[in-house]
Design brief:
heterodimer, A: 124 residues, mainly beta, 7-stranded mixed sheet, 11 strands, 0% helix, B: 106 residues, 4-stranded antiparallel sheet, globular
């Protein structure tokens, strides 16, 4: 069974940094693309960033580009999101998501197949 | 960025009704379109990928259609557990984007 467990969410002041982690299990981690998706209360999901199976294809939403960095450690079956220069509008529940495919976009098998329970980031 | 416009934003229906939700993309995305269901307090759940392919374990009353810019999610006979919010998503190119959602209520 696929398990994705996020951690690292916290309350921080604007301008500060935070690092989210996601521990993955139940599947061959280095075969799949992974993503971070966030959702503010009462709003729809917003894709934040994605990373391909080999870290060769990485993409960001325009709202976080230049401030956030996604990475993965296949030896530890872990996904990370380094968040710098945090803003009030970054406040959200952040989900770690497993893709069905190995690339971030452009495949008919690209889809967000499994989601973690989320970790809450509050910036104020 | 590719914009996805869903309609309606909300709908009122009864158990047994046939329900149709549409998603329009701001440019052609071929079949690079997925559908998700979200219930309160839960993460979204993948229903359909590549516009028409039913995800494993999803009931057959859900179906998807469309190509290019216009897509449809249909629930053939609404069940009590289907009252939720539905989102479309394009995976044609980055940044990946979601539609604004359609809330199905009684």
């Amino acid at each position: 069974e696929v398990q994705l467990v996020e951690s690292g969410g916290d309350w921080v002041q604007p301008g500060k940094s935070l690092r989210l982690s996601c521990a993955a299990s139940g599947f061959t981690f280095d075969h799949y693309a992974m993503h971070w998706v966030r959702q503010s209360p009462g709003k729809g999901p917003e894709w934040v960033s994605g990373i391909s199976w080999n870290s060769g294809n990485i993409a960001y939403a325009g709202s976080v580009k230049g401030r956030f960095t996604i990475s993965r450690d296949d030896g530890k079956n872990s996904l990370y999101l380094q968040m710098n220069s945090l803003r009030v509008e970054d406040t959200a529940l952040y989900y770690c998501v497993k893709d069905m495919d190995d690339y971030v976009w452009g495949s008919y098998r690209s889809a967000f197949e499994s989601w973690g329970q989320g970790t809450l980031v509050t910036v104020s | 960025d590719i914009q996805l416009t869903q309609s309606p934003s909300s709908l009122s229906a009864s158990v047994g009704d046939r329900v149709t939700i549409t998603c329009r993309a701001s440019q052609s995305i071929a079949r690079y379109l997925n559908w998700y269901q979200q219930k309160p307090g839960k993460a979204p759940k993948l229903l359909i990928y590549a516009a028409t392919t039913l995800q494993s374990g999803v009931p057959s009353r859900f179906s998807g259609s469309g190509f290019g810019t216009d897509f449809t999610l249909t629930i053939s006979s609404l069940q009590p557990e289907d009252f939720a919010t539905y989102y479309c998503q394009q995976i044609y190119t980055a940044p990946l984007t979601f539609g604004g959602g359609t809330k199905a209520a009684i």
